[in-house]
What does this fold into?
Amino acid sequence: MEKILEVKDLAVSFKTFFGEVEAVRGISFEVGKKETVAIVGESGCGKSVTANSIMQLLPMPPAFFKNGEILFNGENLLSKSEKEMQNIRGNHIAMIFQDPMTSLNPTMKVGKQIVEGLIKHHGLKHHDAKKKAIEMLDLVAVPQPEKRIEQYPHEFSGGMRQRVMIALAMISDPQLLIADEPTTALDVTVQAQILDLMKSLQERLDMSIILITHDLGVVADTSDKVVVMYAGQIVEQGLTDEIFKETAHPYTQKLLASVPRLDMNRDEALLSIEGTPPDLYIPPKGCAFYDRCDKAMKICKDNMPGFTEHSATHASRCWLNHPMAKTNEGSGI
Amino acid sequence: MQEPLISVKNLKKHFDVGKDAVLKAVDGISFDIYPGETFGLVGESGCGKSTAGRTLIRLYDPTDGEVIFNGKNIFTLSRNQMSEVRRNFQMIFQDPYASLNPRMTVLDIISEPLEIHQIYKSKKEMKARVIELLELVGLNDEHAMRFPHEFSGGQRQRIGIARALALNPKFIVCDEPISALDVSIQAQVVNLLKDLQEKLGLTYMFIAHDLSMVRYISDRVGVMYLGHMMELAESEELYDNPLHPYTKALLSAIPIPNPDIQRSRQRIILEGDVPSPINPKEGCRFVDRCSYAIDKCRNVTPEFEEVRPGHFAACHRIGEI
It folds into this structure.
């Protein structure tokens, strides 16, 4: 498959008063054309930092890139100037965020916010820009777009605001859409609408999507590939089916077992992961999940496990899955 | 048949929001809560589930209706009588950051209800009780002198639970107690709530928008939409045989974390958004988004009736669809 984006050994840190926080610690993954890659993990695992690194939206300082490269169509984004990045951001990679209210300017009419971008980035005349804005709102199924562009964001519901954000992102036919928890703030029925909209746009516009979420249901619904992050690292990645059915890493296993499912028996115990993720001021030397893992061994404490490949597309970072490990008991392989 | 612990009858809570505008957050809901059970209340934002929970324990003054507890309508009690009854009702809030005073130590936070109700004469006894409570929720005496900012979200929610348990309540309203927490931490808090229920014989009202979690924790579940109760049944029954078109759509919208099931599922996508609860029209509240709506639905508000034993629903077309 044609690759759109390749993240290679990316490491991002933040300088703070108390020392360096290693938010992302050497991650690599690829996004193919028309593919949806989900990045899952808990708060603080580095998934949003990863997304913002691709867009280069991190405040620098305190953030800085320690290592790695981000190749978009073969070109390293980390070596681009701010001006070049602006062009890429507007035209080739687009991003939508969790909270559609804070992403829209509350003092500007919705239409004007769309028109502004069209005039600035595409050099359209005002009249044409307005026509295009109506077209875009129509594309994301906002009813009565001619009327709606004259309204302010507070007159839109949460779901409608997210549609406006998607319309803004779609203006220049981006090759890649980064959606950072796009439906977390929305109700389930509205979430279903937005996910459907994203899928149909992907189909029509041949777009790749990076979907950042903590909702494993949303992952099962939309993604082709899954990247599971924990404490700034990727602990497992693979095709969606591989992640859900041949789960290899204890963290992923526990994550899946800790969500109640509608098809689950109510008497089944809900697994909880005791403790909390490690502090990334002083990242652990060994496996980051060591403290919370009930399968942890001596080696896990001080030695970082490497990736074990289970198939061409599926790999996990766990000593239990190492070919030299004595047993694979409980590893799911 | 068991006696209900709390019996809610035609509960209404309206807010005046300007000239001739009334926001009918809760508009006539009735249900019973039995001792030792978990009653789940679900619905989308703005459906009135939180207002219902708060009005029920008289944190808001009700517009109409009654709540019977121990044979008395708590809405008619005087201030003094109410303060006595209120010891039986507690609440756990959604946001573990906003619901704990950042300038109070954990000891002060948990002993506040004990002080207000003057349970203990000496400070020493009170401190011993606080430590007992901390241990009950999986923390320990070391934590007593710390401030909320020193704790993670899950730990803060434990502090909120300890505070709610301080007065040995019978009934706790849990208003989205886990929505602000990470998945792995959610399970910790839910398991804790279940354990405590068993140990202390608590009765919960569990308000949430996460339907899979509500199904897991609740014995019976009520579904609200725009201030009305749409359907109520035992949790397995509700999820296996939903009768109301809204419940059906709501359940089909939840993505299941299993790719095979999720890909093959037929989803009912609802058009549009939840309408405004300000000056709602007569008729079924769901009518504008319902694909089964007929003229009658626009004009006559459907009665909330027992369709099968223990399974209530409010829809004119229950028999036909």
Notes: Residues 6-313 of chain B form a domain with the Rossmann fold fold (CATH 3.40.50.300).
